[in-house]
Amino acid sequence: xxxxxxxxxxxxxxxxxxxxxxxxxxxxxxxxxGLLQAALVGKAFDQTSEVVRGGCALDHFSxxxxxxxxxxxxxxxxxxxxxxxxxxxxxxxxxxxxxHFGDFEGKTWSEIDEHSPEVARKWRERDPEWRPGEGxxxxxxxxxxxxxxxxxxxxxxxxxxxxxxxxGGVMDILYRWATGQDIQTPRTWAIENAVxxxxxxxxxxxxxxxxxxxxxLSELSKDDSxx
Length: 227
Hints:
Blueprint lengths: L3 E7 L4 H5 L12 H13 L6 E3 L2 E3 L7 E4 L3 H14 L3 E3 L16 H7 L1 H8 L14 H17 L5 E6 L1 H12 L16 E7 L2 E9 L14
Helix pairs in contact: 2-3, 4-5, 6-7
């Protein structure tokens, strides 16, 4: 069965990542470190030979057929650096946006815990059907959206490789989908800014090839890690 390789990348760091402030659909730009992370992930695609990292062989990054990005600026600016290297246009897709957090957007976790403890409990327990306010999305809503867009985009590039630049919530769904973990399972894996995650898509399945490759970020100080 033909497959599509996916390089899934979370955007670079933002000021709100540092503050622990929920972004959702609010259009927050990258901070100085995030801009550097974006530049470094762009440089990682400047490859002339096969890359082998983390025990996983990967075809030439330059063989990527398309770049897809969330339309939010933090993701799009990250995708622009990859676009410069690959000389490919970026296709924006709103379906790659972060989860819509409704009333939570713009708030910190501590503010939510202090003012809405019952709401915070639903959040911590990962209630799959709970929505944080009018117009927001539940975990099930997000899961359905992510699966729809990935199935749509990957099916257009059978036998090839695509780049998807998106957000932490989307990366979380991809990891759970690829590893068969329930949406309510407590997270034990990291979702870092600007690392490269490799997946293999077929019409029947999504599988994980490698997760959290940050070797291209080695120029950043080890004690200056992303939130």
